[in-house]
């Protein structure tokens, strides 16, 4: 029983088609304004698209084809939305917050409370049952919100950056919790965190300007990104161009020597990908195979762990502080970024 969506919303430049399997978690990545929250709002029934259809198996969430105009109310869709904020009912106890979903679905008060206790125990919050939301920490409240969403037994769980509002101590706990409770469950999670995608998602899509620019298994997308956003998220440099027998040629005419993926051939649109740690910085051009040497102008220098990240022309290099000092690097300087061909992977864009 697969979830399928096709939806367009002209006012937001949104046009997306996707599917999610019955026990699959899909991560949605993308820059601010890409359409990620629009996607979840359409699925949850909080925003009506201009056209399209969505279904979970035989259950139609909406079908806006000419002459049909079918629209299922949000509460009848079998979806549950977990937002950045817990949004618990302040006048109800933790137990009754979690019991709200089963009660709304027609369960008796004792049965709903029994379901709530089971899910509170599942998220390690059983001891919080009698507390009001105002008595909970941010991490505790978000765990209760997870229990409330799951107690409704949704066919599709929607998570909108659930770790975004948590501190550095609470976020890892919730991430481990979600990994456990999402196993065998259909879910879509919006995140800006590569760790969320790696730990929680089976597949990833990248949204840019309301459209899917990249999709695939999580590790494949993050190890071989095809979009600049995914490359940045994975901490990699990306140069786009046309594949050649030796690598690729960029739009500005740079010849990039690298290792070609088996799936790319000369003449195809392609990207060259390499880590900042593979980039050396020189004050003059370095020649000789198997090196690439690109003239760039430094835009920023910033700390990056125990290294200095040198940013220039959309590319980045990680070098030691002593190397930066020896070269006298500063924003505005013209330098050369040098990368060995063996460190650059070339694959289809």
Automatic annotation (TrEMBL):
Gene3D superfamilies named in the record: 2.40.50.100, P-loop containing nucleotide triphosphate hydrolases (3.40.50.300)
UniProt KW keywords: ATP-binding, Molybdenum, Nucleotide-binding, Transport
GO molecular function terms noted in the UniProt entry: ATP binding
Mop domain sequence ranges: 287-348
PROSITE patterns, per database record: ABC_TRANSPORTER_1, ABC_TRANSPORTER_2, MOP
InterPro entries: AAA+_ATPase, ABC_SmlMolc_Importer, ABC_transporter-like_ATP-bd, ABC_transporter-like_CS, Mo/tungstate-bd_C_term_dom, Mop_domain, P-loop_NTPase, Transp-assoc_OB_typ1
SUPFAM superfamilies: MOP-like (SSF50331), P-loop containing nucleoside triphosphate hydrolases (SSF52540)
Domain of life: Bacteria
Domain spans labelled ABC transporter: 3-234
Pfam families the record matches: ABC_tran (PF00005), TOBE (PF03459)
Protein name as catalogued: ATP-binding cassette domain-containing protein
Species, as recorded: Arthrobacter ginkgonis
Lineage: Bacteria, Bacillati, Actinomycetota, Actinomycetes, Micrococcales
């Amino acid at each position: 029983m697969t979830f399928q969506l096709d939806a367009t919303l002209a006012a937001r430049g949104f046009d997306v088609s996707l599917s999610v399997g019955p026990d699959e978690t899909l991560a949605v990545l993308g820059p601010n304004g890409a359409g990620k929250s629009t996607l979840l709002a359409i699925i949850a029934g909080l925003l009506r698209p201009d056209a399209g259809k969505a279904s979970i198996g035989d259950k139609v969430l909406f079908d806006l084809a000419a002459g049909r105009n079918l629209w299922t109310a949000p509460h009848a869709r079998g979806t549950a939305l977990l937002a950045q904020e817990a949004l618990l009912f302040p006048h109800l106890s933790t137990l009754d917050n979690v019991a709200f979903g089963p009660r709304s679905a027609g369960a008796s008060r004792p049965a709903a409370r029994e379901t709530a206790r089971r899910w509170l125990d599942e998220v390690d919050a059983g001891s919080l049952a009698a507390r009001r939301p105002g008595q909970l920490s941010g991490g505790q409240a978000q765990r209760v919100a997870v229990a409330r969403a799951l107690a409704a037994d949704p066919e599709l769980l929607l998570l909108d950056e659930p770790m975004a509002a948590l501190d550095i101590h609470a976020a890892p706990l919730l991430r481990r919790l979600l990994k456990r409770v999402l196993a065998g469950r259909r879910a879509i999670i919006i995140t800006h965190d590569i760790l969320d995608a790696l730990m929680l998602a089976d597949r990833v899509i990248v949204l840019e300007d309301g459209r899917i620019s990249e999709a695939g298994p999580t590790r494949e997308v993050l190890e071989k990104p095809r979009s600049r956003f995914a490359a940045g998220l994975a901490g990699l440099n990306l140069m786009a161009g046309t594949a050649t027998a030796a690598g690729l040629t960029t739009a500005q005419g740079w010849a990039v020597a690298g290792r070609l993926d088996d799936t790319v051939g000369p003449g195809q649109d392609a990207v060259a990908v390499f880590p900042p740690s593979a980039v050396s910085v020189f004050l003059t051009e370095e020649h000789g195979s198997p090196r690439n040497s690109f003239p760039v102008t430094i835009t920023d220098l910033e700390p990056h762990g125990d290294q200095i990240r040198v940013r220039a022309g959309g590319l980045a290099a990680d070098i030691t502080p002593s190397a930066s000092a020896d070269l006298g690097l500063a924003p505005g300087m013209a330098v050369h970024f040098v990368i060995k061909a063996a460190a650059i992977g070339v694959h289809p864009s």
